[in-house]
Amino acid sequence: QVQLVESGGGLVQAGGSLRLSCAASGRTLITYSMGWFRQAPGKEREFVAAVRWSDFSQNYSDSVKGRFTISRDNAKNTVYLQMSLLKPEDTAVYYCAARLRPVVSRIPEDYGYWGQGTQVTVSS
Asked: Which of 33, 40, 79, 89 is deepest in the core (most CB within 10 A)?
């Protein structure tokens, strides 16, 4: 079992930056893949980025590539999502997720563990 807690959301102007954190507890993340997803009102949950913890190979959606970056702190068992050049269309609730397989996936149903979500609002 693993528990995930996100933090770092908020309100930011277009062009600004935010860093989201996802702290994991209950099990080491070395056997996991971690994903970030987002969901805007009235829309389906959307893949943002994912990382395989063992070698930190990363995968990003086209909509965020070049603007968002995943990083980690092994000692804190925490993964971060640094978001830059934010746009109003990035507004959503952001979720981190974990799956007990060292294979990244863009499909929400492949992830068995989810955080509670954190709101990101980008004003124009």
From this structure: 79
* pLDDT tens digits along 23-81: 988 876 666 899 999 999 999 999 999 998 888 899 999 999 999 999 988 888 899 99
Which of 117, 97, 93 has the alpha carbon at shortest distance from 24?
97
Q: Which amino acid is at 116?
A: Q
Measured distance CA(4)–CA(103) in Å, rounded: 19
Confidence of residue 4 (pLDDT cuts 50, 70, 90): very high
Q: In sequence order, what are the residues at sequence separation of 6 or more whose Cβ sits closer than 8 angstroms to the Cβ of residue 75?
A: none
As given in the structure block, the two tokens for residue 51 are 């990382």
76, 56 in Cβ contact below 8 A? no
H-helix segments, 12-115: none
* Beta strands 78-83 and 3-7, pairing class: unpaired
Chain position carrying tokens 């693993």: 2
H-only helix segments in 22-113? none
Rg of the chain on CA atoms, in Å? 13
